Amino acid sequence: MRRMGLQKEPTFEMFLTIQKAWHHIATAYGKSVSRYGGDRSIPLQGAGQGNGAGLTIWAVISAVLIAVMRRHGHGISILSPLTFVALYVVCFAFVDDTDVVHGARDVNSPGEEVLPEMQEVVNRWEGSIRATGGALVPSKRYWYLVDFAWKNGLWHYRSKQSMPGDISIWGVDGVRVILERLEPSEARETLGVFITMDGNWRKEIQKLTETTTIYAEQLRYGSVNPNEAWYSFKVTVMKSIEYPMEATYISEKEWNKIMKPMVGVVLQRSKFSRSFPRDVFYSSGKFQGLGVMHPWH
After folding, report:
1. What is the pTM (predicted TM-score) of this model?
2. d(CA 212, CA 232)
């Protein structure tokens, strides 16, 4: 650390404070009597929620973890068929939300051959996390095994039934726990977007439709003036609708279904007719429209 121009004393003091501190819960009725921390025989690990140094600390640690995985040959190697650019991917990480990936070295290798390799990948990732003072929580982990079968000249995803297998990790009590395995068509929410391995967006469309439906009901029975109704539409619910756009591909027809529950209510509460022309609603102010961009565009 001294070669990097850093002093170890501030780092030591920071972690000592975190490990020895007593933690209470602040409520509207005052500070909780119950507390935790302080006297733990095994001190709390990590930098702590809200620590200003947390992002830098995790960046330093995760860089080493990923390098370890790469050094042992884990990951997916892809050669672009158009540009011939070689890509090597170990994981997809956003802060501490990480998806670890591994693939066959040959296009003819079946999923049954990749499965034991993936267990080795998980073992090494988990072991590296533990070596840094962390741990994987089984209830928050799930995995996919993706392979294909051909029938009558067409391919389809193999199911868990046709390609059985399990992956496990150590639980917090020191017992091996089998992780939940999903079918390629099953969606799980990742960073606020429901993603599947086969690329269907049914769950995400359902979530977005629920968002617009709930908002429409809240707006219909809420006590707001026309300006507030329009403002809330533009800067609240539409921002929630826009968030997953870059990560998804939803057709224009589906977007119309998603928007339908709330557009009429928004117009009505903003003192427009419910039958206001949708082409004008979704048109630019340059052309006398209301300046709402259609999500599909």
Report:
1. 0.81
2. 12
